[in-house]
Structures are given as structure tokens and as C-alpha cells.
């Protein structure tokens, strides 16, 4: 990594004037500046590195928290746990933080750790290609071309909106937009509005807009389980106490962490435990809705936990409002001024909000990352679905690490914990490269295979597989390639250090020979 000497100021300046054939070299190129990319950048800075570049298509840091600005957007993981461990925030206003506060937090953290200077905003990676000759990644962007020793994929699973393939939707004459691309120029006041979807986004949007629209149709394909949201404002006294005695906030965070971790028992080991939660969710329906017909419509026919458990105190009361209809007949087509359901009913609308989720296992980014032999990540993963070693590295893609890749998602706790675990792994990998003079590392295929076989074996008995639902956790092959099926502290332990013995490595001095000499691992030396 010592070869990469481009200063951050010259990196940014040079990239603006570079021609297609010129490349500015950086040690580490990080794609994305959400919690993952920003956290990685901060760690590199703390590790004393300055030779990194964060490439970000948005105009500022924040990722999903920058992009999801819909009314009612808020986190469903408690605030004290949903922050970096090194930067607790005593100023959260509520126990579940609203989106603007999280975005302001990330903005503030980026400023505090001086990360913006290393970011290239409004810049999209169009191609990242492994170059065997130079043992570098060649990264083409809309704002200059770069080479990098190491590529970090920090793009997140919830970045690319998935639009529904509904007949005629392109012919709709009114406003139509995805929940993650909210059009703030459009006023919904007094309009007839439709929401397609009843996932985590929709159940926040509905109650936030129902009282201002003249009529709201909610199109539900599958009823979700919705638990009460135990949300409250923090008192001034609490904030002062957390500021003056940070240990108190850390203790609160610990308590939340272990409380959440206990859910894993039900999700991944003993699904029967979740029946108690299902009873609570049923009581939530009974509390919010009086009409037996509507109660029936909103009661899921699959086990709680199979899809993400949603939390809301306002969803069911909203569905019971006079100006709201829950439509469950299935959409047949969209006409210029209406949505038509399969039973032939025509419902006129002025605006459609598409809250249909994201391309989780088929992100378009995978088509732009080209590894050994010219194969894209999308091609490699097409056959068996996305898989990586410890969610971080993929055979055939040397010197590339994900910060939260396949099978690192959570249904119960804070993704920031998983992100920080992977950042430890990244930091350790870079240190190993320096310490041993490595030019390349590439995970051994057999290690990746056995890791994933074990993981998928266990997945078969989890609620996500046995719970009787179809969810975005599963890929086209029916495999759960998104969630981590165990305790998060197990993941933390597993990613504590870069396990060089699981990788093929080449020494920097051998680069002239195109890295043909492998650096022996400890086992190989002793053998
Ligand atoms: P989602 O959970 O994938 O929900 C998408 C919804 O759209 C589902 O109800 C789905 O129905 C429906 N749908 C999809 N395609 C459809 C079609 N062609 N026709 C009709 N309905 C269709 O997406 P999301 O609500 O945006 O949430 C995604 C994830 O983001 C969450 O699981 C969560 O991890 C995260 N998130 C978190 C928060 C938070 O922290 N508060 C908030 C929002 C999102 P089916 O169930 O039948 O597929």
C-alpha cells in the first residue's frame, strides 16, 4: 500500500481533468458512502492512511439515509444501537430516530473525521475491472478514471429501487415515484393516492400521508406482521445525562444489543419461540382494527419472522380510517388515470407511490465489476446465487472486499454492528498487505465453498426458510443469500482479523512476474 501515494487533494483535482486513458492511482477505492463506505473511510483515516478515494453517486454521504426521504421515514432499530460504536450520539430526539436526524448524524461524522475531502461526489462507477498485468483495479467513473490496489464494495443491498412490472404503468398520466426517490415537488394534498406495497417503507408512508390526501388506496400483495412500536421522545434530562456520563449511553446500548440478540434464538434456531411474538402481533391487529373483514385481510398466512417484522402503532388505525381502502385483489393493469384490479374494479388515482422494495440479490452494480478472466460478478453469481467468503471476498475477484456483502443482513439488530465487523476485517487485510508486502490476495475457492455450504445447511432450518413466505431475503434459486443466520457476536469474532491462510496471495516483489509466486501461508511453511 505504500506505493499508492496520491494525495487526497491531488486525487480529486486530477480526476476532474483526466482523459479516458489517464488514471489517477489510489491505494483503496471505496464505492459508496453510506454507513459502510463512510465507516470504512474513517477507519482508514484512523489507521493513518490517506491514499483512499470514496466514489459516491449522490451529492453527499448517507447512502440509504440520504436517499429515503419519504414522509415518516425513520429507523426501526433503536437509536442508541443505530450509530457507530466510536461515535455515540447523546442528542437523538427519540428512541427510534427519524431519517433527517440519522442523515444529519452521518453528515456530522463525515465532517468530524474529515472524510469529505476524500470523496468524489456525483460520480458513478461505470466499470471496475481487475487488471492482472498490474495487479490493480481499473475503475472507470463518470468523473475520471482511477487505478486502485484494493477495491471496497460498500454499495449496500437497499440501494437500487425495484420497480414493479405492471401492465400499463408507464402510461399513467399522474405522478408516479418510488419510495426511495420521493418527489418533494409534488403535493399530495387533497389528491387520490395509491401506495403499492405493504413493506417497511409503505407502513411508514401510509400513516404519514393519510390525513392530507382525499383518498388512499393501499395495494397489498402479502399481509405483513406488524408489532407495536415502542417509541418515545427522549427527555432533556436523558440527553444531558448521556452527554455528561457517556457510560450511561453505552450501557443502554449494550442492553438493547443483548435484548435484540436474543431474537436470533427464534429466527435461526428455535422458530417456535416466535409464536409468542405472533400472538402480540395478532393483538396489535385487534387493537387497531374493529372490522372483522379488514382484520382478516391484514392477518398474514405465514409465520412471523419469515419476512422482516415490521413495527408501527399507526398502520392498522390508518387502514381503518374512512378515506383509506386496503385493496387485496391484485393489480391487473394501470391506466392513465386509474388502477384496475383483477376483479375488474377501476379505482381512479392522481398519484401512485411505488413502495416495492429494492434489487437486493440482483443489483446492477454486479454487472459493472469484472474479475479474473473478464467475468462479471453478475455472471459468477448467476449460476448459484450470490455468495462470498465471510460475506467479504469472492473467488475470482482479487483485492476486493465487501463491507457487508452476501449473507450479512440482519432482521433483528443494527446493520452498523455488521458494518463495523467488516471494517475490522478490511483494516486487518490492509495491514497484512503492508506487513507481508502483498500485491494480491484472493480467497481460495474451497474455503469459500465450504463456508457457504455450512451456512446454507443451517439456513434450511431457520424461520426464513420454513416460515411459509416468499421474501426478498431469498434469491431466484430460493436460497437465502442475504441474511446472517446466527448471532452477530459470532460474526464479529469471525471477522476480527484477516485470515490470510484462507487466501492465495502474491508478493509485491513478484509483480514483475505478474504475481506468479505465491506467498506461503503458515500451514504451507510448516508442511
Ligand atoms: P419490501 O420490504 O421489499 O416491501 C415491498 C412491498 O412491495 C411488499 O409488500 C411487496 O409484496 C410489495 N410488492 C413488490 N412488488 C410488487 C408488485 N409487483 N405488485 C404488488 N406489490 C408488490 O421493501 P421496503 O418496504 O422498501 O423495505 C425494504 C427493506 O428496507 C426493509 O425490509 C428494511 O430492511 C429496510 N427498511 C427499513 C426501514 C426502517 O428501518 N424503518 C424502513 C424502510 C425500509 P410481497 O410481500 O408480496 O412481496
Task: Please explain how this structure is put together.
The radius of gyration is 24 Å and the shape is globular. The model is unreliable at 1-20 and 511-522 (pLDDT under 50). Strands 1, 2, 3, 4, 5, 6, 17 and 18 form an eight-stranded mixed β-sheet that branches. A five-stranded parallel β-sheet has the order 7-16-8-9-12, with no helix packed on it. The protein is an alpha/beta fold. Helix 13 runs parallel beside helix 16 (488-494). The chain has helices at 8-17, 35-46, 64-67, 99-112, 202-209, 236-244, 246-261, 263-269, 275-288, 292-298, 315-319, 377-384, 415-436, 445-459, 463-466, 488-494, 522-526, and strands at residues 24-31, 52-55, 119-120, 125-131, 136-141, 144-153, 175-178, 192-196, 215-219, 226-227, 310-311, 324-327, 331-335, 338-341, 346-348, 351-354, 369-370, 400-402, 438-443, 503-507. The structure holds NADP nicotinamide-adenine-dinucleotide phosphate. NADP nicotinamide-adenine-dinucleotide phosphate (NAP) binds at residues 74-76, 158, 164, 166, 179, 196-202, 219, 221-222, 308, 331, 355-358, 472.
Primary descriptors:
527 residues; 17 helices; 17% strand; globular; disordered N terminus
Short description:
By secondary structure, the chain is α/β, with parallel strands linked by helices. The chain has helices at residues 8-17, 35-46, 64-67, 99-112, 202-209, 236-244, 246-261, 263-269, 275-288, 292-298, 315-319, 377-384, 415-436, 445-459, 463-466, 488-494, 522-526; strands at 24-31, 52-55, 119-120, 125-131, 136-141, 144-153, 175-178, 192-196, 215-219, 226-227, 310-311, 324-327, 331-335, 338-341, 346-348, 351-354, 369-370, 400-402, 438-443, 503-507.
Amino acid at each position: 500500500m505504500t506505493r499508492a501515494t496520491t494525495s487526497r487533494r491531488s486525487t480529486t483535482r486530477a480526476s476532474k481533468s483526466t482523459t479516458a486513458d489517464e488514471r489517477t492511482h489510489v491505494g483503496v477505492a471505496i464505492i459508496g458512502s453510506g454507513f459502510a463506505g463512510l465507516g470504512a473511510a474513517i477507519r482508514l483515516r484512523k489507521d493513518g492512511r490517506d491514499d483512499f478515494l470514496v466514489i459516491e453517486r449522490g451529492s453527499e454521504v448517507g447512502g440509504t439515509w440520504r436517499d429515503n426521504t419519504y414522509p415518516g421515514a425513520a429507523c426501526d432499530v433503536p437509536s442508541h444501537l443505530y450509530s457507530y460504536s466510536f461515535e455515540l450520539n447523546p442528542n437523538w430526539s427519540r428512541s427510534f430516530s427519524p431519517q433527517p436526524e440519522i442523515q444529519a448524524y452521518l453528515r456530522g461524522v463525515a465532517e468530524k473525521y474529515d472524510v469529505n475531502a476524500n470523496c468524489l461526489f456525483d460520480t458513478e462507477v461505470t466499470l471496475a475491472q481487475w487488471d492482472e498485468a498490474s495487479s490493480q483495479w481499473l475503475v472507470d467513473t463518470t468523473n475520471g478514471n482511477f487505478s486502485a490496489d484494493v477495491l471496497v464494495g460498500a454499495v449496500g443491498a437497499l440501494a437500487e429501487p425495484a420497480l414493479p412490472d405492471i401492465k400499463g404503468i408507464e402510461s399513467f398520466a399522474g405522478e408516479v415515484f418510488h419510495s426511495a426517490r420521493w418527489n418533494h415537488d409534488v403535493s399530495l394534498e387533497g389528491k387520490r393516492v395509491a401506495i403499492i406495497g405493504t413493506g417497511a417503507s409503505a407502513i411508514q408512508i401510509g400513516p404519514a400521508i393519510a390525513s392530507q390526501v382525499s383518498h388512499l388506496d393501499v395495494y397489498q400483495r402479502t399481509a405483513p406482521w406488524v408489532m407495536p412500536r415502542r417509541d418515545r421522545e427522549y427527555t432533556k434530562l436523558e440527553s444531558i445525562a448521556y452527554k455528561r456520563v457517556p457510560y450511561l449511553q453505552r450501557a443502554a446500548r449494550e442492553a438493547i444489543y443483548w435484548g435484540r440478540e436474543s431474537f436470533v434464538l427464534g429466527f435461526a434456531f428455535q422458530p417456535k419461540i416466535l409464536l409468542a411474538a405472533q400472538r402480540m402481533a395478532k393483538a396489535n391487529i385487534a387493537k387497531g382494527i374493529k372490522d372483522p373483514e379488514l382484520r382478516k385481510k391484514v392477518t398474514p398466512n405465514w409465520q412471523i419472522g419469515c419476512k422482516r417484522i415490521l413495527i408501527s402503532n399507526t398502520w392498522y388505525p390508518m387502514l381503518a380510517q374512512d378515506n383509506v381502502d386496503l385493496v387485496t385483489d391484485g393489480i391487473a393493469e394501470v391506466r392513465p388515470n386509474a388502477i384496475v384490479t383483477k376483479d375488474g374494479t377501476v379505482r381512479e388515482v392522481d398519484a401512485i407511490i411505488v413502495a416495492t422494495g429494492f434489487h437486493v440479490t440482483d443489483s446492477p452494480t454486479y454487472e459493472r465489476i469484472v474479475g479474473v478472466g473478464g467475468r462479471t460478478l453478475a455472471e459468477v453469481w448467476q449460476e448459484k446465487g450470490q455468495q462470498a467468503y465471510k460475506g467479504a471476498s469472492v473467488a475470482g475477484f482479487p483485492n476486493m472486499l465487501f463491507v457487508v456483502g452476501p449473507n450479512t443482513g440482519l432482521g433483528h439488530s443494527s446493520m452498523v454492528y455488521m458494518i463495523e465487523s467488516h471494517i475490522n476485517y478490511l483494516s486487518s487485510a490492509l495491514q497484512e498487505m503492508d506487513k507481508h508486502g502483498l500485491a494480491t490476495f484472493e480467497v481460495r475457492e474451497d474455503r469459500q465453498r465450504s463456508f457457504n455450504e455450512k451456512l446454507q445447511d443451517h439456513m434450511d432450518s431457520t424461520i426464513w426458510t420454513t416460515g411459509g413466505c416468499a421474501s426478498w431475503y431469498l434469491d431466484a434459486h430460493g436460497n437465502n443469500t442475504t441474511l446472517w443466520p446466527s448471532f452477530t457476536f459470532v460474526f464479529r469474532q469471525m471477522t476480527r482479523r484477516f485470515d490470510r491462510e484462507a487466501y492465495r496471495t502474491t508478493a509485491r516483489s513478484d509483480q514483475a512476474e505478474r504475481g506468479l509466486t505465491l506467498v506461503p501461508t503458515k500451514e504451507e511453511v510448516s508442511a
